[in-house]
Design brief:
The structure holds two protein chains of two kinds. By secondary structure, chain A is α/β, with parallel strands linked by helices. Chain A has two domains: 49-152 and 211-241 and 332-460, no CATH class; 248-311, no CATH class. Helix content of chain A is 48%, strand content 8%. Chain A has helices at 2-14, 19-24, 34-68, 97-114, 129-149, 174-181, 184-188, 221-236, 243-259, 264-271, 278-291, 296-312, 333-336, 371-379, 381-397, 422-430, 443-446, and strands at 80-81, 84-89, 118-123, 157-159, 166-168, 201-202, 215-219, 357-360, 401-403, 450-452. In chain A, the strands form four sheets. Chain A has a four-stranded parallel β-sheet. Chain B is built from two helices and no strands. Helix content of chain B is 71%, strand content 0%. Chain B is mostly helical. Chain A binds chain B through residues 71-78, 80-82, 113, 116-118, 173, 175-176, 179, 184, 187-188, 190, and chain B through 1, 3, 26, 29-30, 33, 51, 53-60, 63.
Chain lengths: 461, 93
């Protein structure tokens, strides 16, 4: 009897109670055992950290969206088109495009939407596509200028033998002319009461200062490098693709092919020298499964076809001019005559060169040994979103635009390169990947570029 | 309504058939336009009528809505045509 009494007394005394609680009828409060305490505390700390961080991210984005929302409530005439932001998205190395797209969709796109801005996205999954796109645009502008001002009409002419008059073959048959100028809107009755809108005014074409027109966002250090390289290539490089350059950049990979006694997986790796090595990592696995079934000869044939495809892939062109040649080549007349502001002739909008540039680094660590650092970063993502959102808001409000400082502004976002895996960089150097090449600029081009206010003057370090 | 040349694969239509084809096409386009206006109005135009003019947000929303609707319409039409062709070729056996 006494044993049981002491046992119950011991059990009762382990918990917490006081006369007030006893009077209310609340039983003694007992904590669970030490092990359970550890479990519950670890669980709640991790989950609440995640929940708090996600909540804060949403609040930050919401706050910035609300701050810009008034811009979207302004009226826009029906013959006008709003301001347009061009966004270049590149994946981080050794990672998927989805990583960069998540940053875009979660932190940047809502703010642009709430501000009522239009945006155009140019994304890439291989290296070199953004550079090709930007350079092609500038080359097209040069070609258009030359076509307009050369005085040689490129229209074919038909010579009438009786009257010896030349008429352009632009449209000999009235049926075709009718078909070309046919517009359903004339028949349906939309413009019965209101006049038809012939000329659409682009909001970006109005500001006298091109720094206030449009905007460019480069998401990722790779996108930034390719954008700057593309600008230089388009302005300083030739209009047509030089043959010598093509060999210089592709040859190393081809030589590699011939020298080694290559297996199928190595051939695939060498072929995809211009692509983000996410494919390099996945290809050996694929080939391991495929190798047993397919003969080596067949694989080589497929790879040759693939190489032809890659060469014919019009989205990618090798560089027309290398950075060492920037200072030697003069800027040609077709550009000089259009300066100080080169405009797109159809819309009157200054080209991307003049539009303010915002570079947003995409931090992306990969690897096993970096897991603790990645966990810490995962819990600190709200600081990153604060940074991104505030920069985008500055771009929208056009507050702190400053001219490009050559060469220190080439280092914008260089902290992202510290995340780049070292073996990827080494492989890239071997295969002449674009992103690891020396990054140079030319003052004649960069004097037109304007950047958002992050001051990257590293001379003080 | 193409300008039929020599050796064209399309069937030769009489002028009556051409007219009726043009009429159906006009009907289709008008129908598509009306549905487009309805849907994009429901999706894009806000309910509060403070101002008669469209806001920037509504304008961009309308631009995108029209572009998407039109593209989808064209894609669906093309797919239907393909399906119709496969049915035709299957029916010939």
């Amino acid at each position: 009897m006494t044993e049981s009494k002491t046992a119950t007394k011991a059990a009762a005394s382990k918990g917490f109670s006081n006369p007030a609680l006893k009077a209310m009828g609340i039983p003694t409060i007992k904590l669970p055992s030490r092990n359970w305490m550890i479990f519950w505390s670890v669980l709640t700390v991790t989950l609440s950290g995640i929940a708090y961080d996600k909540y804060e991210q949403k609040q930050i984005v919401k706050r910035y969206c609300n701050s810009v929302e008034s811009k979207s409530k302004l009226t826009l005439d029906t013959n006008r088109v709003p301001r347009k932001i061009t966004v270049f998205i590149a994946p981080p190395p050794n990672d998927y495009l989805e990583t960069s797209l998540k940053v875009w969709r979660r932190y940047i796109k809502p703010i642009l939407y709430y501000a009522g801005l239009d945006y155009e996205i140019i994304e890439e999954d291989k290296q070199g596509l953004i550079r090709t796109h930007v350079a092609n645009q500038i080359r097209q502008i040069r070609k258009n200028y030359l076509a307009q001002h050369d005085g040689v009409p490129k229209i074919e002419v038909v010579k009438d033998e009786e009257t010896e008059q030349t008429t352009p073959i632009y449209d000999p048959h009235p049926g075709k002319e009718f078909k070309r100028s046919f517009d359903y809107r004339d028949i349906i009755g939309i413009f019965y009461h209101r006049p038809k809108i012939e000329k659409i005014i682009n909001t970006d074409s109005e500001p006298n200062d091109p720094k206030l027109a449009g905007g460019v966002i480069c998401l990722g250090r790779g996108a930034y490098k390719e954008y700057i390289n593309g600008l230089h290539e388009g302005l300083l490089g030739p209009l047509e693709q030089p043959e010598a350059v093509e060999d210089k950049y592709l040859e190393p990979a081809i030589e590699e092919l011939k020298e080694k006694d290559t297996t199928a997986s190595e051939i695939r790796e060498a072929l995809e020298e211009s692509s983000i090595p996410v494919e390099e990592v996945s290809v050996p696995n694929e080939d391991a499964t495929v190798q047993g079934e397919v003969k080596e000869g067949d694989i080589k044939k497929d790879d040759d076809e693939k190489k032809e495809e890659e060469k014919n892939d019009s989205r990618y062109l090798p560089r027309f001019i290398s950075p060492e040649e920037y200072s030697d080549t003069p800027i040609l007349d077709e550009i000089l005559k259009q300066l100080p502001v080169i405009k797109n002739s159809a819309t009157g909008v200054p080209i991307l060169l003049h539009q303010p540039l915002l570079m947003i680094p995409v931090p992306s660590l990969s690897g096993f040994t970096t897991i603790p650092q990645r966990i810490v970063r995962f819990y600190q993502r709200r600081f990153y979103t604060e940074q991104v959102c505030s920069q985008v808001t500055h771009l929208i409000n056009q507050d702190n635009i400053r001219p490009f400082k050559d060469p220190s502004d080439l280092l914008i976002g260089v902290e992202e390169e510290e995340d780049w895996p070292k073996h990827w960089v080494k492989q890239g150097l071997k295969k002449n990947s674009e992103w690891v090449q020396p990054f140079k600029s030319d003052k004649r081009v960069t004097e037109f570029i304007s950047v958002l206010g992050q001051d990257y003057d590293r001379s003080d370090d | 309504m193409s300008f039929l040349g020599f050796g064209n694969a399309q069937p030769q239509l009489t002028s009556e058939q051409k007219i009726s084809a043009a009429e159906t096409e006009l009907d289709l386009v008008t129908d598509m336009f009306n549905k487009l206006v309805d849907n994009c109005y429901k999706k894009c135009i806000a309910n509060s009528y403070n101002d008669g003019a469209l806001t920037t947000n509504e304008s961009t929303c309308l631009d995108r809505c029209v572009a998407k609707y039109f593209e989808t319409n064209v894609q669906v039409g093309e797919n239907m045509q393909k399906m119709g062709q496969t049915f035709n070729t299957a029916g010939k056996f």
